[in-house]
Amino acid sequence: MRHVIALDVGGTGMKAALVAADGELLHQSRRATGRERGPDAVVEGILDFAADLSAYGAEHLGEPAAAAGVAVPGIVDAERGVAAYSANLGWRDVPLRDRLYAKLGVPVALGHDVRTGGLAEGRIGAGKGADRFMFVPLGTGIAGAIGIEGRVEAGAHGFAGEIGHIVVRPGGSPCPCGQTGCLERYASAAAVSEAWAAACGDPEADAADCAKAVASGDPNAVRVWQEAVDALADGLVTALTLLDPRTLIIGGGLAEAGETLFTPLRDAVRRRVTFQKLPQIVPAALGDTAGCLGAGLLAWDLLTTTDRTEVTT
């Protein structure tokens, strides 16, 4: 069966799949990223994982993979196929596409993890059918992917969609990016965890615990939660004013709170819009498979482009 390799590389773990043309996951596997062993070892781990997936496909699916797609965190130069920088993984200017091509012998696409997940959500997930969407995962930080007509906009320098660094509280908490008052310092899962741990006096408490306390009516939890929702709404309204998306897709760990998040968030955004058109605000549909599915889509897109080139030449 014709298939591609899809790899989603995270700070602690790697998710991988062999993906059919219709998006079916024919085989799935996970491994630790192993960042404690250093950046060179991480790269070798990615290459070995990809090679093992290639061998599995050849043995169990009757033919080798036709292409590979890889999603990685940090700053990515997708056009050159270079993983330019990742603070979590400690690498700089890794020619990952070329190294994977040398290992596998098939075309390789390299993408940014959030934009790749957004590509999947836009084409086959919660944004399917929307001509303009924005995907915003709320995790340790906050990033974003801007979807336009079935593709995701990277920007002139690869920084498009960085909604987490919109300043929503001028003069507020310092952010590692160098600014103060950034959205992710108030509305990420990590920020909510930190605020709730301080409010309840339990250093082990996290955002999921806060959401449960909100559902039970705890006033301290409601206060912490609403502060995060208000900050998120401020950031989202700035984004929709600039981008005018038809759909806002919210994912990541904080979105797992369901309507505990989405009901107040929709209300908060609605109160803030004036002339803007209110988009649909929906939860992400693909969960932690989005990155793999998106990497698979990048790989299939490569093959589609190659096939068209061959036909026209």
The H/E string reads: EEEHEEEEHEHEEEHHHHEHEH
Spatial strand order of the main sheet:
3-2-1-4-8
The secondary-structure class comes to alpha/beta
The whole-angstrom Rg is 20 Å
The helix fraction, in percent, is: 40-55%
CATH arch. level architecture of the largest domain: 2-Layer Sandwich
What's the story with the biggest beta sheet? 5 strands, mixed
Given as residue ranges, the uncertain stretches (5+ residues, pLDDT < 50) are 308-313
How many β-strands, per DSSP? Answer: 13
CATH fold description of the largest domain: Nucleotidyltransferase, domain 5
The CATH homologous superfamily of the largest domain is called: ATPase, nucleotide binding domain
Number of domains: 2
**Mean of residue pLDDT values:** 93
Q: Percent of residues in beta strands? A: 15-25%
Please write the CATH class name of the largest domain. Alpha Beta
DSSP helix count? 9
Shape: globular
**What distance separates the N and C termini?**
27 Å
